[in-house]
Structure formats: structure tokens, C-alpha cells
Amino acid sequence: MDVALRFGLPVLLILLGAALYLWGRRERAEALSQMGSKGGFGGPPGTLDIGTEVGFGVEGPGPDPAAARPKILGGLVLLAVGALLLLIMAVWQLLD
């Protein structure tokens, strides 16, 4: 039970960090692929929508790839904290 408690949290942090990082990378890739496309009306800003015909307000930059930065950075931070905590717990287990 003690080993599960010592290693469960670091592994959980690593898994959550990896998932958050991959989510942010996917959103960034989607935004980059839609660069320059912007719907004119009917849907959320920055999405492809029925308003992509000429004259329906398709001018503008479209989605911003930088919007995924907090998710990518948060995922990397969770990965680093989880890895560091896992290393500390492994050393603690060996010395205990």
C-alpha cells in the first residue's frame, strides 16, 4: 500500500501532463492548418463555417496557434514535476 501511495501520484502527474501536452499540440496543429480561414457568421469565431463564401466576412487572421501555449506549457510542467517526484520517491524507497 505504501509503495502504491508513493508512486501513484507521480505516475498520475506524468499521465495528466502527457495528456495535457498532447491536447495542446493537437489544438496548435489544428489552428495552424486553418490559418487564414475564418467563418463569416453562424459559428464560433475562427471556425470554418457556412460564411466562407466571398463577401461573407472571411477576411482576418483566423485561429491563433499561440492559444494552445498554456496547455502545452502546463503539460510540460506536470511532466517535469511528476518525473522529479518519481525520482525522489524512488530514491526514498531505496534508502528506506
How much helix, percentage-wise, in residues? 55-70%
End-to-end gap: 15 Å
How many β-strand runs? Answer: 0
Query: What would you report as the Rg, rounded to the nearest angstrom?
Result: 21 Å
Mean pLDDT across the residues is: 80
What's the helix count? Answer: 2
Main sheet characteristics: none
Strand content: under 5%
Q: What string gives the helices and strands in order?
A: HH
pLDDT under 50 segments (min length 5)? Answer: none
Keywords: Membrane, Transmembrane, Transmembrane helix
Transmembrane segments: 6-24, 72-95
Structure notes:
Keywords: Membrane, Transmembrane, Transmembrane helix. The chain crosses the membrane at residues 6-24, 72-95. The protein has 96 residues and is mainly α. The chain has a domain at 1-35 and 65-96. It is built from 2 helices and no strands. The protein has helices at residues 2-33, 69-95. α1 packs antiparallel against α2. The mean pLDDT is 80.
Which key terms come to mind for this protein?
96 residues; mainly alpha; 2 helices; rod-shaped; transmembrane; transmembrane helix
Short note summarizing the structure:
The protein is mainly alpha-helical. It has helices spanning 2-33, 69-95. The longest helix has 32 residues, at 2-33.
